[in-house]
């Protein structure tokens, strides 16, 4: 351990999980490059969810990529993974290097502006296993990201910057919900990559 390290990575949750914010890990120019590449090379589709028996189509767009054609089911709809693009593999390798975890899949989200967000939820699908690790890379607009404890309702939040990395691991998905709150302040898009490990 380096006692003179001025920037130790700290858990932003007070208890019951482990969330590490690495901050900006990709220089601005390179982050701009990935943002443009992802915007135009990913097979974006409007997300779908079945809520109270009704099919809901979101404005937010998503894409699902992986080592092989993994199926991933959430909100009662199923996606089949597409093969990695060159840029996604580069970013996967970077996330693995920084977090010390190997990932085999990635769910991408495209939020066109601050009107689009994500409601409280946990990434606790059976396919991800227990105490899963999820590495989240952000490009584009800076957005607030919030956590809420399932029992105490205590909340914690941080801001995810262009070119930044956030890691959720250990009991986080068991004990905490998370969301991307809508905001009128943000007028530009954000792309988010969440690298995951599907248990085959």
Automatic annotation (TrEMBL):
A Gene Ontology molecular function term of the record: dioxygenase activity
Pfam families: 2OG-FeII_Oxy_2
Keyword S-adenosyl-L-methionine among UniProt keywords: no
Gene3D superfamilies per record: Alpha-ketoglutarate-dependent dioxygenase AlkB-like (2.60.120.590)
Domain Fe2OG dioxygenase per the UniProt entry, residue ranges: 102-199
InterPro entries in the cross-refs: AlkB-like, AlkB-like_sf, ALKBH3, Oxoglu/Fe-dep_dioxygenase_dom
Claim: Oxidoreductase is one of the keywords in the record: yes
Keywords: Dioxygenase, Oxidoreductase
Highest taxon above the source species: Bacteria
Protein name listed in UniProt: Alpha-ketoglutarate-dependent dioxygenase AlkB
Organism: Flavobacterium ichthyis
């Amino acid at each position: 351990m380096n006692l003179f390290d001025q920037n130790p990575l700290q858990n932003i949750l007070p208890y019951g999980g482990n969330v590490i914010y690495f901050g900006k890990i990709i220089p601005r120019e390179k982050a701009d490059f990935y943002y443009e590449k992802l915007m135009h090379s990913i097979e974006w589709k409007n997300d779908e969810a079945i809520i109270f028996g009704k099919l809901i189509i979101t404005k937010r767009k998503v894409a699902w990529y992986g080592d092989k054609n993994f199926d991933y089911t959430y909100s009662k709809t199923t996606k089949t993974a597409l093969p990695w693009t060159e840029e996604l593999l580069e970013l996967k390798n970077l996330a693995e290097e920084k977090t010390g975890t190997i990932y085999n899949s990635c769910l991408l989200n495209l939020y066109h502006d601050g009107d689009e967000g994500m409601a409280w939820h946990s990434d606790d699908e059976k396919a991800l296993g227990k105490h899963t690790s999820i590495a989240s890379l952000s490009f584009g607009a800076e957005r607030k990201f919030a956590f809420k404890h399932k029992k105490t309702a205590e909340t914690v939040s941080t801001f995810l910057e262009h070119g930044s990395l956030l890691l959720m691991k250990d009991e986080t998905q068991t004990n905490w919900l998370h969301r991307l709150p809508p905001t009128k302040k943000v007028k530009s898009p954000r792309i988010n990559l969440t690298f995951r490990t599907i248990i085959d």
